[in-house]
Write a structure and sequence with these properties.
This protein has five helices and no strands. With 146 residues, it is an all-alpha fold. It has two domains: 1-50; 51-136. Helix 2 (28-46) packs antiparallel against helix 3 (52-76) and helix 3 (52-76) packs antiparallel against helix 4 (81-103). The longest helix is centred in the C-terminal third of the chain and has 27 residues, at 109-135. It is globular, with a radius of gyration of 17 Å.
Length: 146
């Protein structure tokens, strides 16, 4: 059941990520990450008999790619020094969690649940932080239209 739920979540997340990447100006890293998550979702749905160990390795690989993407986006974004540092640290944290899941997937379901919860809290904190920052944006770029 857990594999199917995670597979459905990854499928929906990957599909929405592909749509968002398609609409964005720069499609490279975002589109690649969305495709990876979409493939993960398909694998989990087509082979639901996969063990928890395989699932955790796949989730770990996705977390490594996601963390690296956050770090690269932090470098590319024109953020204040503190904001860029925070975003980079969250990306590093997500990548480290992914590395732990990939290297030691058999460390126990309870430990894995705590590690996944920590990663999700880190991503949620980053999402809330960015949402607050974007909400405060007052200056919008001039589109050149009259």
């Amino acid at each position: 059941m857990l594999v199917t739920v995670v597979g459905l979540f990854a499928l929906v997340d990957g599909a929405t990520g592909c749509v968002a990447a398609w609409r964005a100006q720069e499609r490279g890293p975002t589109f690649g990450q969305a495709l990876l998550v979409l493939v993960l979702g398909l694998i989990l749905l087509l082979w639901p008999g996969a063990t928890l160990r395989t699932l955790l390795i796949l989730i770990g690989l996705v977390a490594i790619v996601t963390g690296a993407g956050i770090v690269f986006n932090a470098r590319a974004a024109a953020l204040a020094e503190d904001d860029g540092t925070l975003m980079r640290n969250v990306g590093i944290g997500v990548a480290v969690v992914g590395l732990l899941l990939t290297l030691w997937p058999g460390s126990g379901v309870l430990t894995v649940a705590w590690v996944l919860a920590a990663a999700l809290f880190a991503l949620a904190a980053l999402s809330l932080f960015l949402a607050r920052r974007f909400k405060r944006l007052q200056a919008r770029p001039d589109t050149g239209e009259a």
